[in-house]
């Protein structure tokens, strides 16, 4: 990655209000351009916008986009919060507040897992603010017709939140991706350190989960309202959010298309970064 684009060098904070509570929200602000791409990360312990999209930022910046990586409340350097309602809608409200503060009237959104759920929630409540959507491994909750709920990976994420150990981290990560050869001890240690730096995030997520075991609602009945061009991307071997969810998105979002990567798990943008980057860039530019 270019030396000009670093996590530290692009780190920013913005203060917003959510339901009467002031929150300090962290984001990374990369590049310049007439159009802005906002990237929303997933819900795993220790996740952040930078960690989720490290392999995808520079190609978008080089293509002429301003790229915003927003850390949702309860993750990374953003303030912690207990959410007893829809986490998808909470993140959507926070994104709107951040976009308002930054003067962003219309944005592309790329959402992974929880970020996909949040992107759909934002599109449903702020349709005029969305240019194009890219959804990977997420977009709506609900019970699957052909797979058990919760999925194997979701059970492992919840176990890791309750017991943030290296053993539980490895159990989760080994089903997170299809090819585990890139999962080094250094990567595990970095992720574990990120988790343990913010025990308040871990504790508040467990409190939120105890208050509402299903924080990501089923938007299935409203997907037809989304008019933004939407690219749905899935890993054929996703063990966190099954591919049938991607098929539901394709069937119900009118202006959508689906691309499936074989021999790929839940982290498409990391596992298949080069092909993912070309696919997304071509979609945004057409």
Oligomer: single chain
- The portion of residues forming beta strands comes to 15-25%
Task: Return the CATH topology.
Answer: Rossmann fold
CATH A-level architecture = 3-Layer(aba) Sandwich
Total of DSSP H or I helical runs spanning 4+ residues = 11
The level of helicity is 25-40%
Q: Mind telling me the CATH superfamily name?
A: Alpha/Beta hydrolase fold, catalytic domain
> What gap, in angstroms, lies between the N and C termini?
26 Å
- What structural class should be given to the helix and strand makeup? alpha/beta
Radius of gyration: 17 Å
Query: Quick check: average pLDDT?
Result: 95
Number of strands: 8
The dominant shape is: globular
Question: Unreliable segments (pLDDT under 50, ≥5 consecutive)?
Answer: none
CATH class: Alpha Beta
Short structural summary:
The chain has helices spanning 49-53, 57-62, 87-102, 114-125, 152-162, 166-176, 185-197, 199-211, 243-252, 268-271, 273-285, and strands at residues 11-18, 21-30, 36-40, 66-70, 107-112, 130-136, 230-235, 256-261. By secondary structure, the chain is of the alpha/beta class.
Describe the 3D structure.
- The chain has one domain (11-285): Alpha/Beta hydrolase fold, catalytic domain (Rossmann fold), CATH 3.40.50.
- The chain has helices at 49-53, 57-62, 87-102, 114-125, 152-162, 166-176, 185-197, 199-211, 243-252, 268-271, 273-285, and strands at 11-18, 21-30, 36-40, 66-70, 107-112, 130-136, 230-235, 256-261.
- Strands 1-2-4-3-5-6-7-8 form an 8-stranded mixed beta sheet, sandwiched between helices.
- With 286 residues, the protein is of the alpha/beta class.
- The two termini are 26 Å apart.
- Helix 3 (87-102) crosses helix 4 (114-125) and helix 5 (152-162) runs antiparallel to helix 6 (166-176).
- Strand 5, helix 4 (114-125) and strand 6 (130-136) form a beta-alpha-beta unit.
- The model has no long low-confidence stretch (mean pLDDT 95).
